[in-house]
Amino acid sequence: MKSPSPQLLRALRTSLANTRHNPGQTRFSVLPTTVSPCHSITPGAAIPSARRHNSSAVRPTRMVSRAHAHKPTSRDRGPESQEDTQTDFNALNVLGNIPAPTTAIDACLDSGFHLNNGVKVSNGDGVLLVGGEAFAWRPWKAVEGAENDSAARDSMLNAKGQFELDESVWGVLNLVWPKPGKFIAVYGLWPYMLILGLGGSMFPLSPETKRHINSLGIRVDILDTRNAAAQFNLLATERGVTEIAAAMIPIGWKARPL
Fold it and tell me: Does Transmembrane helix show up as a keyword for this record (predicted)?
């Protein structure tokens, strides 16, 4: 049997010395002899849990990094396929074999337009495309009381900043045959459409001008001239020039509200 260590002997001597100085104090705690009576438990009553007031720390879920695909080391896709079932995306262009209308707009200039049939509209004139025909369009000439052309061009915007023109500038639309209004009465459709290009910017159309165009059985779409030209080329190729018309002002027109 091993002898006790010096540290243990020193602790025992210190304990015995304290007991001699305090004889009423013992080294051991005395348990109570009386036991408290047990309380009766009512059936169905909740038994208090020892962990009710002890909130245990929840361990955070370990985040597992997602596996990212490695970058390909080469862009080589192997030999070209010789199968006959390959998709030819050029064949999906259903309008590719349809010739563009002769009045399609090839270029929009600050002072005019270049059409697909070689016609060039210049001198700051607009263009009116109706039924496959092209007309030079000067709607500001209908403005009365203007000092010069520059003031007349600015007068195409009313005091509210809305694009407004006299009814006389739409006279050529009254000559369209067959009258679109007949189709509206029979089928409830608006087959004829006017694309209105308002120069380099887009402005709201005045209610009076829109009401007059709609009274002719024509619906109107307002865009700036560049987007209006692209829209006209697409719709005229798809639906034909007999259903799509356009009235455009050169992109060089910078409107100044009154």
Answer: yes
DSSP SS3 for 246? strand
The pLDDT tens digits for 3-50 are: 778 877 888 888 777 666 555 555 444 444 444 444 555 555 555 554
Q: What is the pLDDT of residues 82-126, one digit of tens each?
A: 777 777 776 777 777 788 899 999 999 999 999 999 999 999 999
- Give the alpha-carbon dihedral of 218, 219, 224, 226, to 10 degrees: -70
Residue 176's alpha-carbon distances to 2, 171, 191, in angstroms, are 125, 10, 12
Among residues 145, 146, 150, 121, the alpha carbon closest in space to that of 135 is found at 121
Domain spanning 100-249 has what CATH number? 3.40.1230.10
Q: Is the pTM here over 0.70, yes or no?
A: no
